Amino acid sequence: MLAEIFYWGLIFINIAWIALSLYFSIFYFVRKENGNLWAFGFFNVLSLIVLALLIVVYHTWGWGITQYSNFVYLLMAILAVMTVCQAFLGREPKPQTAK
Length: 99
Description:
This protein has about 100 residues and is mostly helical. The protein has one domain. It is about 75% helix and about 0% strand. Helix 2 packs antiparallel against helix 3. The longest helix is centred in the first third of the chain and has 29 residues, at about 1-30. The chain is elongated, with a radius of gyration of 17 Å.
């Protein structure tokens, strides 16, 4: 029972993180504060690592909860796509030097 609560707790925390990350990424992108997107990309990578560890642990010890692992893979794919987009959009333009 505790393993199932921990499993779903981590999944719901990551869903909430994806929603917050997406909201604030759009917020900062619209305000042209692109440098902040790098921080969200970094935390998305940490979230991706947590989900990967979750899958590894639950597949290794087989607590019978892994029938929903396709949903976790979907969350991992969403995080990976968001991270690549944030890394691409988070670039700041190079300042023009006077000649």
